[in-house]
Records
---
Amino acid sequence: MIDLKLPKPTRLEGIIVTIDGPAGSGKTSTAREVAGALDYRHLDSGSLYRAATFSLLRESINVKEWEHLTVSDLDLLNLQILPMDDKIIMSWDQKNISSEIRSAEVTEKVSYVASLPQVRKWLFETQQNLGLNGRLVADGRDMGEVVFPEAEVKIFLTASLEVRARRRLLEYIDPKSHDEMLDDEMKRINKRDLADQNRQHSPLVQAQDAIQVDTTKLTFHQQVKTLLGIIKDLTGIGS
Ligand code: C5P
């Protein structure tokens, strides 16, 4: 019998915490804050898929060609992903693209790009390398299940669709216009969730050993506190 369980790694610097969940569940902002509180590095894996999407769009590669690109083709993109201190800097053609990757155009295409197995393969090693020594809080869709199955703490964040849509709108729209835009935002988020849950490779699922935290009724501060409490209870790490 083949034992597929990975050996427990020896981490030099600290543990790995994974935070997965659907769009708008607060993963990235919570992960950033938790990483800051623990003095850990934060990996926002969604930003890597966004950066890949941005490059494909910017390099004017026809969308019909994307599924045929190989890992070697992807290596030729003009994209740089560099860990710098506790941040991960993404640039395209030497320019920092941290705000461009949040555009509506990228958001609309990113789930398709993330469904392509060669894109996932291409980004897999980069993500694993960032966790080699531990001391990492990684958020995304498949952090606990696929990229860091041996993580010491795995969290799965959820929240109602309406709350997630409201949070997303808050990031970029004047609150006065929320009500009229809410339906459309809920539809967009739901479409992305369905694409992420139903894709063949690394779909969004809760890892069996993940702890689910429903943030529908929690403030941001309570969310962060809850996660830090779980980490402390499970590992003794944090204050
Ligand atoms: O987290 P964010 O909304 O920025 O992620 C953008 C998209 O990247 C997601 O909708 C999903 O399709 C993809 N993604 C993924 N696996 C991850 C992180 C993000 O497929 N680990």
---
Amino acid sequence: MSSLPTKYTVGDYLAERLVQIGIRHHFVVPGDYNLVLLDKLQANPNLTEVGCANELNCSLAAEGYARANGVSACVVTFSVGALSAFNGTGSAYAENLPLILISGSPNTNDASQFHLLHHTLGTTDYSYQLEMAKKITCCAVAIARAHEAPRLIDRAIRHALLARKPCYIEIPTNLSGAECVRPGPISAVTYPITSDKAALEAAANCAAEYLSGKLKPVILVGPKLRRAGDGAEEALLKLAEAMGCAVAVQPAAKGMFPEDHKQFVGIFWGTVSTDAADSIVHWADALLCVGTVFTDYSTVGWTAMPDIPLMAAEMDHVTFPGAHFSRVRLGEFLSHLATQVKYNNSTMIEYNHLKPDPVLVHTAAPGDELTRKEISRQIQALLGPKTTLFVETGDSWFNGVQLKLPPGAQFEIEMAWGHIGWSIPAAFGYALRHPDRKTIVMVGDGSFQVTAQEVSQMVRFNLPITIVLINNRGYTIEVEIHDGSYNKIKNWNYALLVQAFNGEDGNAKGLSAKTAGELQDAIKVASENTQGPTLIECSIDQDDCSRELITWGHFVAAANARPPRLSGA
Ligand code: DPX
Ligand code: MG
């Protein structure tokens, strides 16, 4: 391409690699240690720079972009920036997303001259940020000489893409513009690892053995299914249809198996499951866990951990009771297994007896006070094939999980990391990559207060995101886990705040709804506002929370409160 440089610098090299792996937007906050690097990235015509209000939001915006795009980049300055961006990097680690965290760092001459520097701890050891990054990434590199940059950049990016985890690249301020060699073919970085043939074969045989003699197989889908890529989602659908069995889905994997499919039996979340997913999972005598994640949250304080021996198919290995197979790629394993399994729909026959009757949804009169249930009813009506729904930590998790996803609708949740405020920057990052989709956010008042500034980027980029802010005056989920005065927060005028972000030229709209009719009207305004975000503040009673939240909160609190075990006991 004629626009590419003939002489490469470290910054050019990095820019070209980011483009080659499919990144079109890079999220940044400037600082003197990264300014030359930002110029270099800007100079690449295929990258759009996206400035964020702070580094926490910047990292979470990149986290959301990685959900939409498969990989993302976040560029910050040393320490004051990077330490805040570590939070979104932690999220990317927990949520299995390859986020490339890039930090500017001090001039290479300063450490050896024992200079004290700004934006540092005030000691002359500048390696601490790299050491910290090693704990929250799958590969952390610091470039000390320009000639090392190509090798280290390629290594970090390749590790991130393969492991579906974040990586870290540190570039000193005086090296971004330093010359280095030009990049070689990108396939050296992106070429996937395929399964070991013998291990794949043996794992499929072991799966057939695991299933033989079993009468009641069920598939349980977890969030790593989508993260695995490699056509794993399509392969799972084929496997499920070949088996004919019930398919339950973990809450963090909602949407990864079509909810309108006749074998979909609901969200398995222990006692707060939807439909009869828990009854059928606990009835099973063989459980094929595909990309599942069992935590205290997803098992409702360990009350819902399946108690039969499991087959666990992970992104790059499969484990059975008594056998383990490394280097077996999930997509390949599921495809292979689909050709070998026998059809057995016993769990579907049983499920059709257990399946609850559809619930009659009450439609509130326009003048009725707004309730949680009415908000859910109205959001349900908004969901279509092009909708992506973000649900924030809080009661929005439970309300969102209850909704039925029509074909094509997508669902995003950050259940492993669970950072309140994630949904605002993450939805912003996601929507930049998917302007063709309608992004809707369900977020609580407490969460919104953490990252509210990033609404101003939605304004800046004219993104028509709909934010449904549920104002129950405080941290209700925490109230249910463990109450105290700390769960109260200062109320804001949310509708006015969002309009303040417009400055002279924005198109954000802020509305508030206290009745069912007001919400209906506000939703109409939101659907007509195609040039900016619309925030709808929905005021509900402080105690109007879901039954599921109360039940889940009870068991999570009990798990938190287990007394220390004496050693040896
Ligand atoms: C906290 C949580 O208002 O939602 O529906 O009222 O609970 P609900 P809000 O957004 O409040 C959220 C609040 C304080 N969790 O109830 S879930 C602890 C927490 C966290 N993340 C961070 N800090 C604290 N999850 C960054
Ligand atoms: Mg709240």
---
Amino acid sequence: MSDHKVIITAAISGAEVTQGMNPAVPYTIEQYVREAKSAVDAGAAIIHLHARWDDGKPTQDRERFREIIHVIQAACPHIIIQPSTGGATGMTAEERLQPTELNPEMASLDCGTLNFGGDEIFINTENMIIDFAARMREHGIMPELECFDKSHIDMALRLVRKGHIQGHLHFNIVLGVNGGAAGTPRDLLFMKESLPEGATFTVSGVGRCQLEMNVMSMLLGGHVRVGFEDNLRFDHTRNAVSNGEFVARIARIAKELNLEIASPDEARQVLGLARRY
Ligand code: KMH
Ligand code: ZN
């Protein structure tokens, strides 16, 4: 049994979920602060961030990101903020890359194309991944390698060998997307065992598998991602009231497994991030 410190990432907003599905999904600046603070107060070390306009429309607009990051940092001074460069399906590469201009410590780097339900395709060609990785290097941003399937891990490792992706390798194994690997113990184990020695990983489970995949990740020595981007329901009876409610539950389970929760600075140490507060 592992005895590592668990890094909790809260993916507080996402690009696809709406207030119609769960009224606590944040759109406005005030709602972003409320959701970020609920997650950080409950033990999150990283906020994975998608931006929305006040009407809920997803955007990668640099200035909207700047505004949201500014208020979250004011409310939660030490938190690691990890903007998405995935954005929403259908956005162009340049559109998606805008938050990198703000020099965040981390950003997501999606490592392959996949179906995303219905007619949606989430496009990440090899050249796009190379360009995104180069942009992140230029801005001193650590990529979190988003892998929705085993083949995405293989792509990431190919780009590591070619020198496009450098430094400490931190993966996000995303399970249960309609078009990606399934949220099952078998698929998680297969992907985890495909990671190289020394890499760290977190696990995101979409919908009902969030909790199970999070718990399995902790047992395998990994970290966890919770939040509205991946799951809106606290259990089969009701919606979660906040992102913080998800964070509090997984923090409690971690403690019952004798695992400590990493503070933001402890997470920086684990991930090899240079910034300290
Ligand atoms: N919204 C999805 C199309 C990321 O943040 O990098 C992509 C996504 C991945 O959420
Ligand atoms: Zn995302």
---
Amino acid sequence: MHSFRYVHGRLHCEDVAIESLVKRHGTPLYVYSHETLSRHFEKLDEALRPLDHLICFAVKANSNLAVLRTLSRKGSGFDIVSEGELRRVIAAGGDPRKCVFAGVGKTESEIAYALKQGIYAFNVESEPELKRINQVAAKLKKTAPIALRVNPNVDAHTHAKITTGTYENKFGVAFEQVERIYARARALRNVRLRGLQMHIGSQLTEVKPFADAVRKVVPLAAKLAKRYGFEFFSIGGGLGIVYQPALASGDETWWKSPPARKMLTPSKYADELIPLLKPLGLKILIEPGRFIAGNSGILVTRVEYVKQTGKKNFVIVDAAMNDLVRPAMYDSYHEIVPMKQANGKLVSSDVVGPICESGDTFCKDRMLPRSVEGDYLALLSAGAYGSAMGSTYNTRPLAAEVLVRGKRSELVRQRQPIEMVWAGETVPAWL
Ligand code: LLP
């Protein structure tokens, strides 16, 4: 479900015509729907109702302050991976006491900052990190709430670059080592064992890998909870979304994802996992990013040129891989639709950006309505890992972002002023 649709042939986000946003704010432009963000949060929240649970939105998926505020208003906690993300949550009015801090490389100063803010738990990814957290906490005369991140060695059957729960990956503590490390942790004076966490990967389109991992880890969680008086078990994020339209016309296959009707839904996920989790009697945390934000955002771009070579029809747009890197990085599929609905013949098109790399390609040989210079296109399902992964490569400013709620819309990030791209740089006097 999402709130982007055509009304009288014009693409809308909720009650706002994309055309009006483009006129006011230019392109490339991210547009987010408040309704979609809220609904996705609520759907998951409802599905998990039989459990004592907390949804911790993965800030890395979309860290815009207005998005974070939307979710914190709904009661969301947050999964963070850096001091910067925690600062964003706080700036957006989120509650640090509902934050869990993941990541394999937490620095001393990040740990100190998070401790001072009183986060819910550090999801600890190694024994050296555990020692460091204990030391920093001792220095601050504090007790750090911790959970070990267990790597269950279960294949998530997703793209290799976003698989995290096998022994090939850098994440977490090997399943077999968890008990030994908790025993050590118990002896540390400045940590308190609060729970256990796992996260096996992202864009999972089936419930089976989640269920396999949960089935494997639940007995361990039960044993440790009894031994140490744990409060929570976090099953991580990873719920996949539909990127590909039901009738895909392109050559690309989105990570072999099944058609929409077979997609993972919150109720399928909950039906399978609740019976496994409920007997634990622990608070269950879940860390979704993409499921909440993915279909809540689009990237709107202007057609600058149409270039026909003997072989190809290139549609050159003003957005590029610096705005949305997912196709270049993971060969990922994003549906591309015109801002003004077109009923004419479809033509094979390569939609490409202006960056000087062949990888700066949003789609290849895809059947799309014919575009001409000055048209606008929208790349769908760009709300997660879109703007958040943006860069200024080729000295291109970070794109603007707009949040829509009903008839209202507001610029929630201005287009980066071009001087800001090099604002921190200096030229030595001796040059
Ligand atoms: N929890 C942890 C510890 C994570 O590392 C992640 C994502 C999540 C939760 C949220 O996962 P989600 O529910 O969004 O699948 N840039 C890639 C995705 C990287 C995911 C990294 N970790 C992409 O564009 O597909």
